Each structure stands twice: as structure tokens, then as C-alpha cells.
Amino acid sequence: MHESVSLYIHIPFCHQKCDYCDFYSLPRLAKNQAEPRIPDSYIGSLLSEAAFYANRYDVKSWRTVYIGGGTPSLLTPTQLTHLMQGITKTAPLVEHAEVTMEMNPESVSAALIQAAAATGINRISLGVQALDDTALKAVHRAGSKAQALQALTLLSEQWVNAHGGRLSADLIAGLPKHTMPSFVRGIEELCSYPLDHISLYTLTIEDDTPLFRRIQNGSLPHSEEKADRMWLVGRHLLEKNGFQQYEVSNFAKPGCESKHNCVYWQLENYIGIGSGASGSWYGKPHADKSAGCEDGVRWTNPPLERGAVTATPAQKAAASAQKASPQQSLTLPEPIIEILDSDTQQFEYLMMGFRQLIGVSEKAFQSRFNTALSEAIGAQNGVFADWKKRRLARVIPVRNTDGTKDTRYALNRRGILLLNRFLEELL
Fold this sequence. Notes:
22% strand, three-stranded antiparallel β-sheet, 17 strands, nine-stranded mixed β-sheet, 37% helix
């Protein structure tokens, strides 16, 4: 029995796709302004899928919920209410559950904020990316600086002040045509709002995106060195304003780290629903102490089959189990299944764990994989020892909440900038 499990809900619709984005998304499906920008049938498919997995994995409650995209703020207040009511009917939220919804500045409204607060959402993540119109236009990002500031003001007054909601924002360092002075002013301006969390990413040029092609053909200038310098300046400014780095790209006021993202980084079970979403269910420690852990499973939903409006067999089975009629829903193709053996889970545990500045617990690793962490990473005479000697890693003695002594192995502020190189050496 699992008392609480995390849930990711993917809303794969956008007003327009940014040039740098390689995530799965679709243009809004509404044929005219009077129609919902996301079909109601998609909400039905999400609820059926949530019920199916909750039944399969004996979910008793939701520990964290994250509504991401895409652009979830394209949902109407009525659709958001229907979605959250259906999710909490499938399984209730635990007390003090973290429930996050992504919003884009151009689609924030007072009505949507009110619906979010009324349905149990308590954290909003705003996709600002940059407070510079030239940089936003260079990558065909919908919205403007003025809309971002308007959204921040509205959220400050009607979300943080009125409802006590938490507020996070995303920024990208190194967007084409973004100057360093403008980037610095943008961070300083952003920090004047009541945010408790900021994600600062370095622009990644993904293959086969419009941005990749424009940079490759020389029509748009880009410098990775400039992007890296911007990120370092951004980190300094965020820390100066009270945000502590706790992961490669994430900064928070004390006690305001993203609980949902920590589920990913600590390789805990989570259910993912919606077109393009993934979920992972990891294996338990193997009863045979000479082995690692049992096999786990990861599923990934393929792209949406647009136009289909019948329930899948899995959705019908879930609805039948709830003694309810399946709602009209878009057909979601059968997910792609990946079996996660013990070696794969062990590497992913290290890969995700070393993203965090608190690093990896020796006791937790031993309990999960029946293997000594110090041996797996070469803490005495291997990769980790070498990185520690070069002052890029550290060993942290700690005391766990149960009072037991533990040791954590972590990269430091300099070392975490070279995370990929460290992981390559571990392989």
C-alpha cells in the first residue's frame, strides 16, 4: 500500500511554440476565440488515466501534484476546476500537499488565479524566461516584458497576498540578443516581487529545433560562453537576494524548495498522465542482499492522436472500476514501456542525486541497492576521490531525522558546474 504518491499532469497545448523548445506540445485546438483553447475531451482522458494508474498502483493519496506543459494556463477556470475535482476524487491530497501549476504571463487572469486557489493549488510557477522584449522576440516567445510584469503584479496581489500562495518563476540565461546589462536588470526587477523560488537555466540548443537551424545557418548569433557567463552572474545575483542554490538550476528561499522536483531528483515513484508524459515506478530493495534492487518500470505516453474521441480500453476499465461511465476523451495511444534494471536505477540515482548540492546519502544508497556508495563512486581511490582532491567535491557528515549518523557525498558549487563531466567519468 502506498499512502502518498506524486502525480505529474501534462497539458501539451501552447498558443505558439518557442524556437528553443523540443518538448512535445501542440498549438491550441480551438477553432475560434469563443471555444475553449483546450478540448474538454482532453480533461476527460486525464481523469480516466489518473484513475487507471491510481488503481494499478494502489494510490491512497497524492503527495505532490504538478500541472505542467505546454501552457496549463490555457485551461479555462471551469476546466481547471473540473480537472482538480476529478484528481482529488481519484485520491485525496495529503495534508500540506504541494500542488503546482505552470502559467505563462500572457494567459494569467484573475479568474484563473481564483480557480487555482479554490481547487487546492498552492504554488504557481510563472514562465517569465526574460524581461527583455528583444530576447523574447528572437526566439518567438509569446508574451512581452509588459505582460510578464503585469502578471507578476496580479499574482503578487491576488495570489500571494490574498491567498498566501507560493510563487516561482523560470528564467533562461543566454537567449540570443539578450545583453548582460538587460539580463542583470531583469533579475533585479524580478527579485522585487514576492517570489520564494526561481529556476535559472542556461539556454540549451536542442537538435532539430528552429533555434538550432537558425544558429546553424548563421542567421542568429549565439555564444555558449556568453550564456555561461550570464548564468554565473545570475547565480550571484539570486544568492545576493536571498535565494539559495539547492540544485543545478534551482534556487529557493529557505524551506521553499520544490517538493515535487525533489521526487524526481531522489528517484521516488511518480505517476505521469497526459500525452507526452512519463511516469516511473522503481523497484524495491532485493531480498537477496547480494543483488541490487528489483526491476522498475517507466512508461511514456506517445503524442496525442488528434481527432479521436473514444475512451481507450484502459480508460474504460478505470471508469468501470469506479462504477462510472467513461467521459468523452481523446484517445491516448498505449504507452511505451521501459524496464529499469538494478544497474540502470543505480546510475539514475547517482545522476539525479548529484544534481543536488546536498548530494547522495550513503545510508539511503546502501539500503536501496545493497551496495556501498563509497565503492560505487570511488570515494577512497577513484573518481570521487579525485574530484575531492581537486576541490570539486565534498564529504558531509550529517545526522538523519531519526538521529542516526550518515555521510553524504556531493559536488560543491564549482563541481556542480561540471556535473556532466563527473557523470561521464563515473560511467
